Amino acid sequence: MSSNLNLEYLFSEPEELDPTALPDYTTLDFVSNGSHIYGEIMWPSANFDKPHPCVIMLHGFPGTARNDDISHALCRIGCVVIVPHNRGAWGSQGKYLITNCIEDACNLAEYAHSEEFARKYDVAPDQIYLLGHSMGANSALNAGKKLDWIRGIIMLTPYDPTRYLNRAKESYFRSLLEEGKILNSDGIDAIYEDVVINKEEISHPNAFEQVKDKNLLVFAGTYDSVSPVNEMILPLWQKLEKHPTKALQKRVEYPTEHGLLGRRINIIQEIAAFIDKTAGIN
Fold this sequence. Notes:
Layout: E1 24-32, E2 35-43, E3 52-58, H1 68-76, E4 80-84, H2 98-112, H3 115-121, E5 123-133, H4 135-144, E6 152-156, H5 167-177, H6 188-197, H7 199-202, H8 208-211, E7 216-221, H9 229-241, E8 249-254, H10 264-279
Parallel strand pairs: 3-4, 3-5, 5-6, 6-7, 7-8
Antiparallel strand pairs: 1-2, 2-4
Helix pairs in contact: 1-10, 2-4
């Protein structure tokens, strides 16, 4: 079985557009645990075969990097794409916490998986993907591990907030949280304590048992000073490498910093190929 994607349009567009089948977008207004989560929902041309895979794009901390190049490319090839802002971020209601981000991702995935959403946007309920960058990758991993039906988890330079809780590196984690002054939260201490209290649950290596047979695509930056490969990626990946699985699991490393600038085209190609291959799996 093949997917309904057309990778020809990854970096190109048709010369003529059918006015009766235009791609478009609308506002996302989704209630997650009592708070309105805002963002956008994008859908491809109606000329694409249905149903469509659906990709939920999860931003990092504090949300300034939106990865729009990825979301537009995926929409062009035939994906429905949801781009939310977490609780407390960029106008969404509620307070920002790492665990709230995970809950939001899980709730949105359940919504995308629902009969209501599938019918409205012509989505295949069994082809839902979570894609996150940095702290958003933490959300993708920790939400995706709870969902048996999730088709794939895609992580761009994942940040494991539990890795820097020891005294020697606590100051580094707190300095990162300083960037969150634009977020609506109860402050750095509240965000930090949320991680301390939930560290066993959200630690990336601890997710192994729940993701060992899931489709996973992980991107690393060789010179990443925010999510160093040895600290943030290898602790989980080395466990996965020792486990035989039929799932598609791939780690790609580029000579970049945290934002993977300089290899964005390669990243988009890898993501599209991953979705195309796994969406077509029965």
